[in-house]
């Protein structure tokens, strides 16, 4: 692949690390998050244009906190420290970091004390920034000059222009920091002298060339769900190797109502690609019988998916590649590519495509052409490839499907009930123009029976929950404020039209502390 300018984001366990990466990419600079345990030699070998130290929950003066070799400050690569990263730079340079007399949380006014600083180009002398810290830099290290402060934080930004090292106590990556993106942009362009070569046209061209080289004349099987990521992956692979690609859609029996037929219809009529639909609802149902643990369900579904793909490729060629539409957040959220040790982030849920591939399945290799991209970047690539707008802007749908929306054991009957309820919700949302306004909405079957009264009879039947969220990146999400009259209509229709449901509730939990899916 053609060499791209790269910025390394060194992960010290901060909550907003993915946001830092997204903002840098939005500035047209490619970046990767690396664990703080990555050796300096490895980082040097990447020839980064700049390095960003992230925030983190620890205190730098605690010796067991994540630290890094001081040598990194001497390799001549510009560095930007954020929050913990800022304190780390101070600590490494023998400045004084200690618990602050006043912690700062939330929106705080920043006062730029040196408007000539490269970091603050086109940033007003006072603006709002987002703070989240209990420690502070009491004395900056020698050679560093304070360039910004707040009422409670005497060193909110500092710089060593000679070494091109900059540090900010606040979080420029969150949108609450009014000029945050400008500050990051200044670091990338004014300090690191990036040219901004991360644009999707280049990405497509480079990726197609790299795919051709890697695949040669071999076959490729792509797991195609009809969702955004795999559809865009199909577009890229098809452009690269044409008919050597076969898209395999696994109908695992846990799709939304009519989804299987929609996917088949779309990919056999709109595109000129080899497309195979494998119906294996019964197989999945038998493997999931009696299973109630969410992680176990996810792993079983992931493993069975691999087996289906393996059987398909063997039906076509002796060897071949396996491709899937994995994107960058899938890898990060499943704990891959994260730091070990202290800054390790807990695995919240194993995405099905991150399940371990069984040992006896040996593809020539696994291809994930979108593995470094965020969702908005994937959509941009999709649009540029000419994939229809409706497909590119579909709501995400998880690979384990309704399997993670039925709490407890999955049975054919529960799948049917959930499909019907979900269908009503989707119908009402689309009639009211909510389809494109919300990031994701669906029904969940918690496996709870409640007492009701219908036509003067006592009922003891299923409760169904509605989940609807708005979010930019699915890392955090807010529950959607759907108007009461629409909710009332949905509830009324579900209880009337769907058998075995006598009660509807609305999930009003944001993420965190909840997650989007219930399992
Ligand atoms: N039913 C399926 N059949 C074949 N492959 C699937 C299926 N579901 C998921 N996959 C594979 O797993 C990958 C990850 O699933 P994921 O849901 O994250 O992506 P997607 O379905 O392509 O897009 P979206 O996030 O919009 O739903 C897919 O890109 C695809 O390669
Ligand atoms: O392909 C997928 N395989 C999975 O195993 C999986 N689990 C969650 N999701 C989707 O990820 C987003 C965030 O969901 P959570 O807040 O539940 O983690 C939401 O969009 C979820 O629908 C998955 N997608
Ligand atoms: N958000 C952060 O990076 C916090 C850094 C450090 N733990 C503090 O409280 O000051
Ligand atoms: Mg999907």
UniProtKB/TrEMBL annotation:
The enzyme class is: ligase
Q: What is its EC number?
A: 6.3.5.2
Q: Is Nucleotide-binding included in the keywords of this UniProt record?
A: yes
Which pathway does it take part in? Answer: Purine metabolism; GMP biosynthesis; GMP from XMP (L-Gln route): step 1/1
Its name, as the record gives it, is: GMP synthase [glutamine-hydrolyzing]
UniProt-listed InterPro entries: GATASE (IPR017926), GMP_synth_C (IPR001674), GMP_synth_GATase (IPR004739), GMP_synthase (IPR022955), GMPS_ATP_PPase_dom (IPR025777), NAD/GMP_synthase (IPR022310)
Q: Which GO terms describe its molecular function?
A: GMP synthase (glutamine-hydrolyzing) activity
Specify the domain of life of the species encoding this protein. Answer: Bacteria
Q: Which residues bind ATP?
A: 225-231
The record's gene field reads guaA
Catalytic activity from the UniProt record = XMP + L-glutamine + ATP + H2O = GMP + L-glutamate + AMP + diphosphate + 2 H(+)
Q: Which UniProt keywords apply?
A: ATP-binding, Glutamine amidotransferase, GMP biosynthesis, Ligase, Nucleotide-binding, Purine biosynthesis
User: Record keywords: Membrane included?
Assistant: no
Q: How does it assemble?
A: Homodimer.
List the CDD domains.
GATase1_GMP_Synthase, GMP_synthase_C
Reported function: Catalyzes the synthesis of GMP from XMP.
GMPS ATP-PPase domain: residues covered:
198-394
What residues sit in the active site? 83 (nucleophile), 171, 173
Q: Which parts pass through the membrane?
A: none
Coiled coil ranges (UniProt) are: none
């Amino acid at each position: 692949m053609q060499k791209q300018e790269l910025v390394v984001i060194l992960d010290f366990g901060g909550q907003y690390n993915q946001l830092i990466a997204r903002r840098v990419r939005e500035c047209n600079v490619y970046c990767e998050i690396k664990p703080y345990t990555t050796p300096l030699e490895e980082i040097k070998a990447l020839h980064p244009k700049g390095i960003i130290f992230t925030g983190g929950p620890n205190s730098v003066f605690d010796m067991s906190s994540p630290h890094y070799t001081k040598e990194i400050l001497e390799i001549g690569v510009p560095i930007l420290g954020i929050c913990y990263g800022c304190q780390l730079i101070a600590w490494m340079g023998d400045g004084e970091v200690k618990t602050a007399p006043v912690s700062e949380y939330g929106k705080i006014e920043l006062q730029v004390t040196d408007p000539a600083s490269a970091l603050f180009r086109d940033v007003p002398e006072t603006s709002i920034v987002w703070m989240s810290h209990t420690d502070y830099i009491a004395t900056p290290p020698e050679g560093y000059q304070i360039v910004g402060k707040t009422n409670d934080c005497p060193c909110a930004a500092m710089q060593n222009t000679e070494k091109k090292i900059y540090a900010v106590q606040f979080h420029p990556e969150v949108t609450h920091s009014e000029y945050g993106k400008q500050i990051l942009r200044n670091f990338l362009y004014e300090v690191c002298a990036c040219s901004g070569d991360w644009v999707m046209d280049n990405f497509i061209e480079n990726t197609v060339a790299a795919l051709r080289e890697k695949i040669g004349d071999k076959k490729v099987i792509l797991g195609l769900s009809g969702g955004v990521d795999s559809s865009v992956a199909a577009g890229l692979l098809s452009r690269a190797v044409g008919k050597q690609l076969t898209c395999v859609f696994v109908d695992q029996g846990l799709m939304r109502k009519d989804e299987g037929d929609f996917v088949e219809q779309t990919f056999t009529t709109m595109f000129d690609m080899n497309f195979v639909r494998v119906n294996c609802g019964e197989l999945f149902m038998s493997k999931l019988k009696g299973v109630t643990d969410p992680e176990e369900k996810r792993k079983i579904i992931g493993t069975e998916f691999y087996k289906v793909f393996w059987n398909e490729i063997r039906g076509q060629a002796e060897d071949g590649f396996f491709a899937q539409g994995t994107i960058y957040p899938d890898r990060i959220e499943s704990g891959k590519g994260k730091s070990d040790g202290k800054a390790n982030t807990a695995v919240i849920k194993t995405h099905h495509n991150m399940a371990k591939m069984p040992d006896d399945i040996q593809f020539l290799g696994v291809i994930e052409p979108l593995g470094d991209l965020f969702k908005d970047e994937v959509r941009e690539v999709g649009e540029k490839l000419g994939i229809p707008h409706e497909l590119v802007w579909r709501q995400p749908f998880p690979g384990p499907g309704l399997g993670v929306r039925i709490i407890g054991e999955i049975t054919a009957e529960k799948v049917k009930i959930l499909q019907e309820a979900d269908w009503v919700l989707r119908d009402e949302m689309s009639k009211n123009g909510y389809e494109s306004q919300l990031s994701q909405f669906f029904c969940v079957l918690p496996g709870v029976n409640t007492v009701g009264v219908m036509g003067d009879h006592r009922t003891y039947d299923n409760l169904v929950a509605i989940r609807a969220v708005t979010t930019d990146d699915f890392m955090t999400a807010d529950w959607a404020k759907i108007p009461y009259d629409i909710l009332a209509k949905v509830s009324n229709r579900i209880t009337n039209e769907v058998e075995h449901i006598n009660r509807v509730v609305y999930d009003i939990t944001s993420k965190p502390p909840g997650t989007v899916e219930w399992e």
